[in-house]
């Protein structure tokens, strides 16, 4: 298959990938393909940015630019802050720069400068990533709550829900997400360091999540959606909680 | 924490980002390749060529992880500079001693960097290709006094003969460590507060998953 086609296929699979890490890993593989194809003409010659950037731009100009812009923005927003100085960050930055260059080709050639907005958005990304670093935790994103199905960390789904959502409403959301047939038998539970609590229908999951996130020392916790009698007959029933003061 | 001022507390490492700037063909890529090649690591599946390289050093017991970001030197890509040099701890500005014009480009970069980042970034001005001394078009004295006048250090290197490169990076790392320590002291003990990350200086806890094999020694000769 011609290299260009292979590269475009990679971009397409990047667009389909969901996790930002997966997307970045596909981006790196694509860059490798580009280097490999450059090496065909001149084997063994190491290529730096002088050589790579123009080729990357050539490739990007032939890709689906709208999708690429979306993907780059997505990765920039969501990539793991720990990777900030890494290879993924470098090639993501380079791709971003190349796309901006293509987008504003005429303007850049005249002014020799990226627009203030572009420079600012890079800055904001970096700031956000570094600021969030300390508390980068999947479950700490506001307005989202991560719920596992049946067991902690199994089939986890991150559900969007407002801070004032009741446990009963979140249960309904879960029933739909996990496609359970008898939602009346299922409830939302929170597991805190091995102890299990059932959320009362009128409890506020976000309230409880916030309380757990702020608690010192840090507690490991998981929200789990599962049937009421899941623990088996031998286990004592879970405490049903409404306020986060149960701990 | 007492560790913040000392910097080299056990189990910690400095992570620095260094950006390479300079006109095309001055030898930026060869320079950094020469420096990193003995650590060039093909086990790391995504290690791609020479645009992005990493190096681990141990300087007087302080462990340093360097990430070296190459930039495209062609004039038409000048505008992309800021997305690379933002949040860098150091910049290596390379010119070709046989090409006066490339030295002028370095001066332009210095101006821009000082304007955008102030004195927080450690600048190195590097006259490369000293193996071509006979064709020198940039006087040593002019280059060195210029560097001094802008608070940068000047180095002479030959990527071809592997001269001066080790010194350049070692010296730069020492200066970045000093700058980071001054920063830490200025911040008192707020070791992991967001401000620490403003310039990209991160003191990170050591983790077992250190990517490249090899010892942490800085000698590459």
Automatic annotation (TrEMBL), chain A:
InterPro entries from the UniProt entry: RA_dom, VPS9, Vps9-like, VPS9_dom_sf
GO BP terms, alphabetized: signal transduction; vesicle-mediated transport
Range of residues in the leader sequence: none
A Pfam family assignment: VPS9
The keyword Transcription regulation is annotated on this UniProt entry: no
GO MF, any single term: GTPase activator activity
Subcellular location: Cytoplasm
GO cellular component terms, A-Z: cytosol; endocytic vesicle
Family note: Belongs to the RIN (Ras interaction/interference) family.
Protein name: Ras and Rab interactor 3
UniProtKB/TrEMBL annotation, chain B:
Alphabetical UniProt keywords: GTP-binding, Lipoprotein, Membrane, Nucleotide-binding, Prenylation, Protein transport, Transport
Main location, first listed in the record: other
Alphabetical list of SMART domains matching this protein: RAB, RAN, RAS, RHO
Compartments, as annotated in UniProt: Cleavage furrow; Early endosome membrane; Endoplasmic reticulum membrane
Pfam family, one: Ras
Membrane topology type: Lipid-anchor
Keyword Membrane in annotation: yes
CDD domains: Rab21
PANTHER family xrefs: PTHR47978
Family per record: Belongs to the small GTPase superfamily. Rab family.
Protein name: Ras-related protein Rab-21
């Amino acid at each position: 298959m011609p290299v260009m086609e292979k590269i475009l296929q990679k971009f397409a699979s990047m667009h389909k990938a969901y996790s930002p890490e997966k997307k970045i890993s596909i981006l790196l593989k694509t860059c490798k393909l580009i280097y490999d194809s450059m090496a065909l003409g001149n084997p063994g010659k190491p290529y730096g940015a002088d050589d790579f950037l123009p080729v990357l731009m050539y490739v990007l100009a032939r890709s689906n630019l709208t999708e690429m812009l979306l993907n780059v923005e997505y990765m920039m927003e969501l990539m793991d802050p720990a990777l900030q100085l890494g290879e993924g960050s470098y090639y993501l930055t380079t791709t971003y720069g190349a796309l901006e260059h293509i987008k504003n080709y005429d303007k850049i050639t005249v002014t020799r400068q990226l627009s203030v907005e572009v420079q600012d958005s890079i800055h904001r990304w970096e700031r956000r990533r570094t600021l969030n670093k300390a508390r980068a935790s999947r479950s700490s994103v506001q307005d989202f709550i991560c719920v596992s199905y049946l067991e902690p960390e199994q089939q986890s789904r991150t559900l969007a829900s407002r801070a004032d959502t009741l446990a009963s409403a979140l249960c309904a959301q879960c029933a739909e997400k996990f496609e359970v047939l008898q939602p009346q038998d299922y409830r939302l539970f929170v597991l805190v360091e091995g102890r299990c609590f059932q959320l009362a229908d009128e409890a506020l999951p976000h309230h409880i999540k916030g309380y757990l996130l702020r608690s010192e020392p840090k507690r490991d916790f998981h929200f789990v959606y599962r049937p009421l009698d899941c623990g088996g007959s031998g286990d004592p029933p879970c405490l049903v909680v409404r306020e986060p003061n149960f701990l | 924490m007492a560790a913040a001022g000392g910097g080299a507390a056990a189990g910690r490492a400095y992570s620095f980002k260094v950006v390479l700037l300079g006109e095309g063909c001055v030898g930026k890529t060869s320079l950094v390749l020469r420096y990193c090649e003995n650590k060039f690591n093909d086990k790391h599946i995504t290690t791609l060529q020479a645009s992005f390289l990493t190096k681990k050093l141990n300087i007087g017991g302080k462990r340093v992880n360097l990430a070296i970001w190459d930039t495209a030197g062609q004039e038409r890509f000048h505008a992309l500079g800021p997305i690379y040099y933002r949040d860098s701890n150091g910049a290596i500005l390379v010119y070709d001693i046989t090409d006066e014009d490339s030295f002028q480009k370095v001066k332009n970069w210095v101006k821009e960097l000082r304007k955008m980042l102030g004195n927080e970034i450690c600048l190195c001005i590097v006259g490369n290709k000293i193996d071509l001394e006979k064709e020198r078009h940039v006087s040593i004295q002019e280059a060195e006094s210029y560097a001094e006048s802008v608070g940068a250090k000047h180095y002479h290197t030959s990527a071809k003969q592997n001269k001066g490169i080790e010194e350049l990076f070692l010296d730069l790392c020492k200066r970045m460590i000093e700058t980071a320590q001054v920063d830490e002291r200025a911040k008192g003990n707020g070791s992991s507060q967001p401000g620490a990350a403003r310039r990209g200086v991160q003191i990170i806890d050591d983790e077992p998953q250190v990517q490249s094999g090899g010892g942490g020694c800085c000698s590459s000769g």
